[in-house]
Design a protein that fits this description.
The protein is built from three helices and two strands, in the order αβααβ. It is globular, with a radius of gyration of 16 Å. The protein has helices at 18-29, 54-60, 62-72, and strands at 43-44, 84-85. By secondary structure, it is mostly helical. Strands 1-2 form a two-stranded antiparallel ribbon.
Length: 107
């Protein structure tokens, strides 16, 4: 019997005033310390950013999060946010975050 390993429902929204919001977000990201460990083939600020993006993202994604909650018939709150940075040949293995009740925002 064939069955999918996991399902990944996705929703897509255009962020209003993206050019302005992107500059603010990149300014915050560029101030963070990124780390690459022996166990991963990418850099991340997940362990070093002290959740620095959460309130900013909640505020500037408020409208889109509202639409998502309506469309997906869920309630949500943002509790963590981090960035991953890749160099040539970097990658991540297939994984999912469903065990954490994850609904992700990928840019």
């Amino acid at each position: 019997m064939k069955a999918p390993l996991f399902e990944f429902p996705s929703y897509q929204y255009e962020i209003s005033d993206w050019d302005f919001k992107k500059k603010g977000l990149l300014s915050r990201i560029n101030k963070q310390k990124f780390i690459r460990t022996e166990l991963q083939t990418f850099e991340t600020d997940r362990g070093t950013n002290n959740k620095a993006y959460v309130r900013y993202l909640e505020e500037f994604l408020r409208e889109e999060l509202f639409y998502f909650c309506q469309e997906a018939s869920v309630t949500c709150s943002m509790t963590d946010a981090w960035c991953v940075r890749y160099e040539k040949n970097d990658h991540q293995t297939i994984h999912n975050h469903r065990g954490w009740g994850f609904s992700g925002i990928i840019y």
